Fold these 3 entries.
Entry 1:
Amino acid sequence: MGKQINYWLGYEDFLQIAGAALESGCVIIRRAPGKEAVYGRTADMIAADQYRYFFYVPEAGDLMGQALPLERRAFIGCTAAGNTWIEAGFSHKNDEKREIIRNRLYVQSGFYDDKGEYVPRPVCVTKVYNRLVRMVKKLAPYTELTDTYVSMNDEDYLQEKEWKHKEYVSPQFLRLKLMENYRLR
């Protein structure tokens, strides 16, 4: 369990979020599938072709006893290490499928230690997370969108219906959705 905000933000916008994380004292962790994690304190380690990152908050502890470099399993599920970082990423578009892939900021609520006792997320991680969420909301305003879907309900089976929803979408990706019919996924 945890808190998250889903959004559609591009690489350039994400660099601003990473900059705010760095200003908050975070270390950026980049972990490509099947590769060792890379750690850094500058935004130049944000690669345009790798969409998922972790902002480690050193004030929260020494990755809660985890040794560096982190083992692959430290990134999966609610772990002690997960109590010290914020998962983050940026959206990317697939021109072939005409879709934009969503990303998020995520922070876990806590974890259960070996004794079965609950260890909540440190307050310092929550403060950094909240700062980053405020920045996301500035870069990707809350926008009401209308999409269509085919109903599967008995009373209007196979009829096309409208669905109104609100999403955090950057102006860049909103233009693609509205003007060039890209789908938000």
Entry 2:
Amino acid sequence: MRQKRVVVGRVAFTLGLLLLLLPLARWGAAYYWQQQALRQIVIEPISISAPDEVESGSWVAQLQEKEQGDQAREPNLIEIPKIKLRAVVLPGVTPAELKRGPGLYPQSAAPSEGNVSIAAHRGVYGAWFRHIDELEPGDEIMLYLNGTRYWYSVREQFVTHDRDWSVVESNGRAELTLTTCLFGTSSKRLVVKADLVGP
């Protein structure tokens, strides 16, 4: 009987340890992938001219083609100095993509035309957006997309439900939208909106 209790205790301890280590392993894998991706790209020189004209809706698809191809990639990065964030932005928000870093919503418009929307995890897989709740109006955000640097200024921050797709839709305003989950619930989203200041 005592031996049974010892075995059960060891099994419970091992399972508990694995449950604790799993989030750390996920975070480590995401961090490792980001560090490898950052080493492969060079930020300078960055074009500050206007990007080539592309149709809205095809823009993210073009980034996906570049990502899947074997060609040299231009940097697709997000930098937020206030919260010391620098991460590679992936084209897409599938679970597999968000495990590696921030991802562009497929319905994102080209930066000069409308709403560029980016999602990222807050508590797992690198937790790239864990500190975006600290952003305030006027804080700077830089995006490096398709060889052009875009500079945004934070406008507002708010919470909405997870099915509120209006936050990532374009309304003719050149803006950036960052979305992430609230800690403790996946049914709410923390949203940061920023206005395009210039390329």
Entry 3:
Amino acid sequence: MNYYDDILNKINELINNNDINKALSIVEEELRAPYLPKDFNEKLLSIYDNFHKNNPFIMNDEMIEDFLYSTNEKQLIAVDQLNKKNLREYIDLCNEYLTSKGFINAKVLLVDSLIRQEIGEEIKMDKDGLLFEFIPKYQLPIEESDGYLSGKKHLNDYYLKEPSKAKIALDLLYKEMIMNLPINMNEEEGIEIAIKIIDYINCAFNK
């Protein structure tokens, strides 16, 4: 048995003894490490996620910042925690993270929350080497944007008699739109994306 097995056994023993706070403290301490074996990291994240599904928990600011500059998985956890906060109190941290070489999937989720919270300060974001500057409160949430609405109409019309495919198509449309942040697509771009999604689904279903 090695160090990592010992840690997992200790955590599970504490959980079985209902000493949840101590078990969680060990999980969080281990997750702060600069390197963890993949299997061990996945098991820790699984324990962490399972606990918080039924036990809402707010990470402290230090841990959030640590996670923002760690693995992709930890960045997603940190952004999820940030999204539950008043982001007006974290403008500097948001700008620092969004201009870093962070995980793009996590970065766009944070941008989405900044838009939904109608943040009035200027935000900067590095995306594929390009620097974007924008004020979130002047942008619409994805589901209210022209591109999403036009794409949604096109997909709903096309899949009028195939609701299951329509749901898949709309999920794909939303993902395309959120990955395009901080820019909202216009009506024409939304329809172009919808057409590509239809082609993709038809190919996947061998139509």
